[in-house]
Each structure stands twice: as C-alpha cells, then as structure tokens.
Backbone:
C-alpha cells in the first residue's frame, strides 16, 4: 500500500485500505520500522516507504490472513489447501514463531464469530462539519472502523423525508450501522465503544460507574449549564432544583474538581468519557464560552493531541473546504 503512494500517505488512509484500526496500523508501522523497513513519518504527519525495502516472508503471510487473530491460525487450515506451496510453508512458519504472550493477548481480544459478522455491517455517518458531529468523527477515528460519510445541510437535506426517517429531529450527528440507527452524541459514543470493544474505549462492564456518570453529566449538566449561561438564562436560586444541574458556577467547579491533576476521568486509560468531556471543554474555551481554567487546559491538551483526534480535525477541515467550494 505504501508503494502505491509516491508521497506521504496518512495512517487513516492506510488503515482503511487494510481494514484495520488506526491503533493497529500505528503498531504495525512501528513493528516494520523495528525490522529495518525504511519508513519515514509519524502519526499526524503521514508515512512514506523508501524504495528497495522487501517485506520479510512472515509479513507477506500476515497480509494473507490479516482478518484472523493469531490464536485462530488453526481456523485458516481449510484455506491452506488453496494456497501456493510457498505460502503453506509460511503458514507453518507463522505458527512456529508466534510467542506465547502474543497468543495470549490475541486470545483475550479475539472477537466471536457473531461479533465479526456484526462488525462487517456498513456504518454510515451523517454529519455537517459545522456541528458537534465532529465529536463523533473523532470517535470513529479512535475506533478505526470503516465508515461512509454523508454530509447534510441544515436547512435542506437534514429536513428531507429520507433523513427524517433516520432522525425525526432533523439534526446531526447520526449513524446507521446495518439496520441499527443511533442519534445523540453521547449515545453514539457509548454505542461505538460497546460495538467495537477491541478499541478499548470503555472500561470493563463491572467498572463503568464513573464512565456512565461522567458521559451523561457532560451531555446533560455541563452542556445545558453552558448553553443557558450563553443565552443569559441562568436559573435563580429557587429554580436550581428545576434546572436539574443547579447553577452554572457549581457545574464548572464540579468539572474542575473532576479533572484537576487527572489524565483520565473514568478509568486508568482514555475512554469515550474523556473524548466527550475534552471535546466540549476545548470547544467552550476556544470560543470563550467558559473561562480557561488551568486544570481544564492541562486535562484537554493531551487528549486533543491524540493521533485520531488530529485525523478527525483534518477530515473536518477538508469537509469545510469542500462545502465552501460547493457553495461558491
């Protein structure tokens, strides 16, 4: 794939061509570089393969069976009879060189056949680059799944009957995964994390208390408090109970306490809860919708700089440019 491109090519494009997640793509690029492949570049900048590098035989074999986890090599046996003799030999070599740690990791993460089938369904992403759908765009890049983008206009195609059948509210974002339709940013993020568990964007089910708590706090309390404050509709003290979130200042203080000196809020690793909160905090600060507290900036910075976030930003910028061009 790298050889088909004369200039640098983004990890996003390579991952889609290979049918793997962006995280897996970055790992495999690093593995090739460690084996001596003359690949220049880094996440966020693109990659280019220098001429004359030949893949070692086991890499060629892996390309044949990239859709199988390493502990499922035995499942390839029926296919091996149809392979050239050289590839059958490589298949045996592959079994031999797999380390026990790799096999254990693969077994832990190996999806069931039911999950494999479900994850092959077409995923359509309905968006507009000037909307909060950018958050879902980032989530899709983190997941690394293949998806089709359909850009809709606010006053026309979002209100057309075919899209109202998808989302009767006539707004984006929305996704259609096979026959499953999901709308609302927080719901889409939770659905994607559950549907593509190999991306590791949700804690184990037994440890999701903080995960669910802060996803829906962000979508409910934080978003409503900031929007009402921007419109000058802050509730009076006697209306705090009716408002559901109390008051604007209490919400911001709660967020400060949540993120202060923390890298993540719902687990010891990055999750969809971090993606949602960092997206909103970063957006609110950029447009002076909330004050730029140091703890907010320290929490957001590493998340916004994630490679998948950068890829999504580039994709949104490209859609904006195409939309502007079409308008002229």
Residues:
């Amino acid at each position: 794939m790298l050889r088909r491109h004369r200039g640098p090519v983004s990890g996003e494009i390579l991952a889609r061509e290979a049918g793997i997640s962006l995280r897996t793509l970055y790992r495999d690029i690093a593995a090739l570089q460690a084996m001596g492949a003359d690949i220049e570049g880094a996440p966020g900048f693109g990659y280019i393969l220098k001429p004359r590098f030949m893949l070692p035989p086991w890499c060629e074999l892996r390309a044949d069976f990239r859709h199988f986890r390493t502990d499922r090599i035995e499942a390839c046996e029926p296919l091996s009879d149809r392979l050239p003799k050289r590839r059958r030999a490589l298949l045996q070599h592959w079994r031999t060189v797999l380390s026990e740690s790799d096999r254990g990791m693969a077994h832990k993460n190996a999806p069931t056949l039911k999950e494999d089938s479900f994850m092959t369904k077409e995923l359509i992403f309905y968006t507009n680059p000037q909307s909060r759908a950018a958050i879902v765009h980032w989530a899709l890049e983190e997941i690394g799944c293949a998806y089709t983008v359909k850009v809709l206009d606010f006053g026309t195609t979002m209100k057309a009957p075919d899209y109202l059948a998808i989302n009767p509210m006539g707004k984006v974002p929305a996704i259609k995964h096979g026959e499953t339709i999901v709308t609302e940013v927080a719901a889409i993020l939770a659905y994607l994390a559950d549907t593509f568990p190999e991306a590791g964007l949700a804690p184990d089910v037994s440890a999701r208390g903080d995960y669910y708590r802060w996803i829906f706090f962000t979508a409910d309390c934080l978003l409503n408090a900031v929007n009402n404050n921007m419109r000058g509709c802050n509730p009076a003290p006697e209306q705090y109970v009716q408002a559901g979130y109390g008051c604007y200042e209490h919400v911001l203080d709660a967020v400060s306490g949540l993120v202060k000196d923390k890298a993540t809020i719902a687990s010891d690793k990055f999750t969809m809860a971090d993606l949602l909160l960092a997206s909103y905090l970063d957006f609110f600060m950029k447009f002076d919708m909330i004050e730029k507290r140091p703890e907010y900036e320290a929490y957001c910075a590493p998340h916004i700089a994630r490679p998948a976030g950068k890829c999504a930003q580039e994709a949104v910028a490209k859609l904006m440019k195409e939309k502007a061009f079409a308008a002229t």
